[in-house]
Design brief:
This protein has 248 residues and is mainly β. The chain has 2 domains: 142 residues, Jelly Rolls, CATH 2.60.120; 87 residues, no CATH class. It is 2% helix and 53% strand. The strands form 4 sheets. Strands 2, 10, 12, 13 and 15 form a 5-stranded antiparallel sheet that branches. Strand 4 and strand 5 form a beta hairpin.
């Protein structure tokens, strides 16, 4: 398989996928936490519409910040759904689709700052839990969670793990664990890898797989971290190929 041609979109049914996770400040008391901007993820048991909003009024039509954002995820059946939402500053904008999982938010059109000025959140309209978050100035959400859409298989090829001490104090020890489950809520999480970093300032570890690891349709994937010291920043990047099952 020609990876370059897949990345260029020239192989029907195959696409490259990057799952980005970032927790800007994790505490030791929290134990294992999914690596995400909002610090944790509460999985929904049924699909809901999402309230999309910023914490800054500049992210609005006519404002200097983000104007439109692409929301991507899966519905109650696990099928892929997405839509473009026009922001209204700090006011909630309700999505048209209902989402069991929000896989990603990507900034599209912007004002003069060319980035999102505030923190953009996707909050479940009924459960009131944040399902995805985009930090100010980043233009894309950062959560290590991903749910494979119906009719697709995700093949993991590489995982990057990173940690850093962002304030003074002792050097953090960080244990990372990658987990997956098939079929969503009610099914057991299976630990796929367990790695540890001991760092004074910053350290990074690549997990190179001997062969691509398949995650079938409706599989939930996540990377979690447990830190020994407060104010520890954790990051993960998971690379892979999303394959339409009808194309194989």
């Amino acid at each position: 398989m020609d990876w370059l041609e897949i990345a260029r979109g020239n192989v029907p049914g195959f696409s490259t996928t990057v799952i980005r996770g970032h927790n800007p400040s994790q505490t030791s008391a929290s134990g294992y936490v999914t690596i995400a901007e909002m610090g944790s993820v509460t999985y929904l048991t049924t699909a809901e519409t999402m309230n999309i909003s910023s914490d800054n009024a500049a992210d609005d039509t006519g404002g200097v910040g983000l104007i439109t954002v692409l929301v991507q995820g899966v519905d109650n059946t696990g099928a892929a759904v997405q839509e473009v939402v026009t922001l209204n500053g700090t006011a909630d904008v309700l999505t048209t689709n209902s989402y069991l999982r929000v896989n990603n938010m990507v900034g599209l059109t912007v004002g003069s700052t060319e980035v999102n000025v505030g923190v953009i959140t996707a909050t479940a309209s009924s459960a009131a839990t944040i399902q995805d978050e985009m930090n100010a100035g980043e233009g894309i959400s950062q959560s290590s969670t991903y749910t494979v859409p119906l009719g697709f298989t995700f093949y993991v090829t590489k995982i990057e793990l990173n940690c850093a001490k962002i304030t003074g104090g002792a050097s953090p020890e960080v244990e990372f664990t990658g987990q997956a489950r098939s079929g969503g809520a009610g099914n057991c999480w299976i630990q796929l890898f367990d790695k540890r970093l001991d760092t004074g300032i910053v350290d990074e570890l690549d997990v190179i797989l001997s062969f691509p690891a398949p995650a079938p349709e409706r599989s939930d994937i996540r990377v979690r971290a447990n830190v020994s010291t407060d104010s520890t920043e954790t990051r993960s990047r998971m690379y892979g190929i999303l394959v339409d099952d009808l194309a194989t």
